[in-house]
Amino acid sequence: MKYDFDEIIPRHNSGCLKYDGYESIYGASDLLPMWVADMDFRTPDVVLNAIRNRLEHPILGYFEHSDGFYESIIGWMAKRHHWEIQKEWIVFSPGIVTGLSALVAAFTSENDRVLVQTPVYHPFFYAVQNQNRTLVENPLMVENGAYEIDFPDLEQKLKAGVKMMIISNPHNPVGRCWTPEELTKIGDLCLKYKTLLVSDEIHADLMMRGSQHAVTANLSPEIAANTITCMSPSKTFNLAGLSTSEIIIPDLTLRKQFVQLMNKKWHLAAGNIFGDVALEAAYTLGEEWLEQLLDYLTNNVHYCKDFLKTKLPKIATYHHEATYLLWVDFSGYGLSHDELSQKLIREAKLAFNDGAIFGAGGKQHFRINLACPKTTITEAMNRLYSIFKS
Ligand SMILES: Cc1ncc(COP(=O)(O)O)c(C=O)c1O
After folding, report:
1. Cα 194 to ligand 1 centroid, rounded to whole Å
2. What is the pLDDT of residues 190-235, one digit of tens each?
3. Which of 196, 227, 323, 354 could form a disulfide with 203 if both were Cys (CB 3.0 to 4.6 A apart)?
4. Strand pairing report for 32-34 and 350-354
């Protein structure tokens, strides 16, 4: 079946954050929203139908995560990521951000050092700093238009004592798909310096054509025993409103410690019935839809990069391998970050994510969400052109 990603689905007044919730952030109400990471595409019918079917039963009482729920996760990891996991390794979490905060709480204490690679998905900072842990940064470097890891800096910081390292694999916002070699180096350094590694792989399924995701924990048994993986169907299948994700912990001791906090102390084991139904349907029946989505997203990214390169060469992009979030550098205009931000909002009427929220290296950068029909992107590029062409 051919899916229609060109369809424009009005989202205003649906209670959605992207369209109905930006005014308080951007101070304007007439913007084209290309910010928060969800997609303007319909959630696949296989998922919507599974939810409809569940609604045929008139009682929505307490429920248990079914065998089908676990089997669908196991099947997806094997099929899409060549990662053989066991049912016992899977811990439900009502979202990855909740899971990250819980991981920090479970495995570190006040003032412990937690390392992240900036610029990075900003809730990583909150998970660390809002719990009075010390944030340590290993800034990414740019070489020949691609973000790279500064390994000497990383080793020096791990050596000084870091309890946990949180990586974004693939990386939001810079769009790198870390190679098995890079991930093995990270994993081995974490083992060497006794740093617990948390690998947030929520964007793992969203590879641009030509790139292949590597699961960090799949690189060696030793790395697996020291790595906790965060996965979810929420980005892949546009289900973020269902708050359903999986934390995968092969090591029994680590798992027990996490479950003690997550399930026994905080009672977060349950989730919601529709999230489970949706996850199972997506992971079991969603592959054909995903393949077409990946073609569409890859085209959107190519179109946008080509447009900027030919029409607005002062706006630079980077080597982009994964996620539908394009990281864009406006420093070529010689304007301050605030001036650029105001121009985008007040003149171009575009709501991109402000790069500064992602920490060091984010100034004069913006993140554009390209998970939308091509016509939306064309409109955004035309708006950019009319304001930034000179
Ligand atoms: C790297 C990363 N982790 C986590 C999340 C959010 O996860 P959740 O909605 O499951 O809390 C996002 C959303 O954009 C993300 O980019």
Report:
1. 26
2. 999 999 999 999 999 999 999 999 999 999 999 999 999 999 999 9
3. 323
4. parallel
